[in-house]
Structure formats: structure tokens, C-alpha cells
Amino acid sequence: MRSIFCAALMPLCGLLAAGCSAETGSPPALHADPSAFDGERALSEARAFVELGPKVAGTPACMAAAEYIRDRLAGLGLDAEIDDFEEESPAGATRFRNVEGVLRGGGRDWIILGCHYDTKDGIAPGFAGANDSGSGVGVLLELARIICAGGGAGNCSLLFAFFDGEECKRDYGPRDGFHGSRRMARRLSREGRAGNVRGVIVADMVGDEDLRVALPRNGDRALMLAVLSAAAAEGIRDRFSLARWNTLDDHQAFLDAGMPAVVLIDFNYGSAPGLNDYWHTGADTIDKLSAQSLGMAGRVICRALAHLDAAGSGRRRE
Asked: Residue 28 has what pLDDT?
């Protein structure tokens, strides 16, 4: 899924350009009430997604999963599109599909909420990745629901990004893994929009019953502080810490392009504390996911979102 090492739609450009028209009036408020985030609903979303079965990048099943996510986003009230593209991978030319859901806010800045939805190939028959990737999908869909139901985006427009091709087929490298996130980061940079991204928050493996999120060192410091402050406000600061290592995940492409990004990840997903023996095995099944853990992750993201949105209140559309 990723490497860890010790360390001391219309095209997206069109979606972003559409957010740069003139607008006046008082800055709107972001409707992301942490108390509205329902962990049971997030678990139901994850369960329904997992029940679709394996979603190996480039397969018809993965393409069908992209359409499922697009339809769910549209049903929740977002402008939803699929970015269909082809890139080389160890399997040759491979078709990938990012799913993008947009809620436009009152300013010219953007916040990206991301997760991957593809599953690792060759793990076990029928492997559908409950925690990796179903948990992130469940959290993002529930975030979209409460924000749309509450009244929508605030100062910043929100982009819900579901990345394809996160999992590598052999070994992570320029043509293997992180296809969807690198695609989006490149497009933002090419179109001169990277400077309008206030933050990228990625959720990956956040459903473990004993949730222990360790924020990797390769993350934006201000965003990491916002996440830790949000966890403290929720009374669960003991569940969130700073890792002593870097983690390669979908946030890295945005960091490389100069955008602030962070990933929420619990890399201790196993049969006992400190173990990771469920990861990339047939044991990564829906019964291992916890509504309470999904709720904790979702509420922390809500609070971090509100912080980012408030920071963007002075940057109105031009």
C-alpha cells in the first residue's frame, strides 16, 4: 500500500476555474458540525462499498466502483464527476478513474479531502479492503452528507477526492502507485491553482477498533497542529500522535507540489496492540471496523476543516 521508512467532473482545472467568479457579501460559514458526524452511518457507507468486492485498479470492477462513488456524491448534493485517464504501470497502459465531488464556497481557495478507493491485488480471493480502503471512503461520504445537510461549504470550496491507483502492483515508483493523487497534484500545478489550495487532508486506514492515528513526519506542520488541536478539543488527544517516521501515501504528491497536506493513518492494524498483521491480508474485513473509530476520525477532520476554512476568510473570489 505504501512505503514506510525511519526519518529524524469536468476536468479539475475547470472545476477550480468555475470557483473564481466575482462574488460579494459576508463570508459564509462552513457547516461541518462535529456532533453531526455519525460513525454508524460512516460504517454503513464503508460496508456497502466493501460489499462491491475487489477494486483492483484498471479492472472493470474498479471502474464500476468509481461510478458508485460518483452516484453517491451526486445523491448527497455534490457536483460529481469522474476523471478518466490512462498511465503506464507495471501492467502496461492502465486506465484509472479519480472521482471528484465539489461543494463551492464563497472564496477563491480550496480544501481537498482525500482517500483512495482501489484495493491491493493478489492478497486473497475476494479481498475487498475494509480498512484499506473502505474506511476512508466511509468517512468522506459521511463528511459530504453532514456538510450538505447542514448548509454547505464556507469560505473555501471543498473538493472530495477519491483516488484510484494508490496501491502499487509491484514496488512504489514513478510508474507504480499513487497514480490518482499524482495526477491531481500535477493538474493543479500545471493550471497554476496549487496556490489556492489551503490544505489537503487524506484519510487512510482509520477504522481500526483501537484507533491510534500517528501523523507521519512528512506532513505540513500547521496542518498537523490543526489535527492535534482538533483531537484535543474532541477529548481524544491520546488517540493522535506524531510518528517518528515518514509515510508515503496520497498526501505526498501534494507536498511535492508545494501544497500543505497531511494524512491521518493508523498503521497498527492487527490482532494485538502494536501489530499490523491485518494489513494487506485476508483478515482486513468489515468486522474489524469500528463505528466509534470512524466517528473519532470524522469529528477530528470536521474541526480541522473549520480551522482551515476560517483561515481562508480573508481571501475572497476574484
From this structure: 74
d(CA 199, CA 30): 15
Nearest 10 degrees: CA dihedral of 132, 5, 168, 219?
A: 70
Site of grid cell 468517512 = 139
Q: How far apart are CA 90 and CA 84, in angstroms?
A: 19
- Cα separation of 31 and 13, whole Å? 25
> Please, are residues 312 and 156 in contact by the beta-carbon 8 Å criterion?
yes
Strands 92-103 and 261-265 come out as unpaired
* 54 Cβ contact partners less than 8 Å away, ≥ 6 residues apart: 61, 119, 121, 126, 127, 128, 129
pLDDT at 29: 76
Q: What is the pLDDT, as a whole number, of residue 135? A: 98
Instruction: Output the nine-digit C-alpha cell for 227.
Output: 489535527
Question: Which of these, 233, 223, 66, 34, lies nearest to 147 by C-alpha position?
Answer: 34
Q: Hunting for cell 464563497 — which residue is that?
A: 106
List C-alpha distances in Å: 261 to 61, 99, 241.
30, 19, 16
The burial class, CB within 10 Å (0-12 / 13-18 / 19+), for 125 is: exposed
Q: Could you state, in chain order, the average pLDDT of each consecutive group of 10 residues for the chain (318 residues)?
A: 43 42 56 96 98 98 98 97 98 97 95 98 97 98 96 94 98 97 98 96 97 98 98 98 96 98 97 94 98 98 95 50
Return the DSSP state at 296. H
- How far apart are alpha carbons 61 and 12 in whole angstroms? 24
Name the residue type at position 49.
F
Contact yes or no for 89/180 (Cβ under 8 A): no
- Provide the b/e sequence for 76-100 (b: ≥16 CB within 10 Å): bebbbbbbebebebeeeebbbbbbb
| pLDDT confidence of residue 26 | 55
CA distance 275 to 9: 40
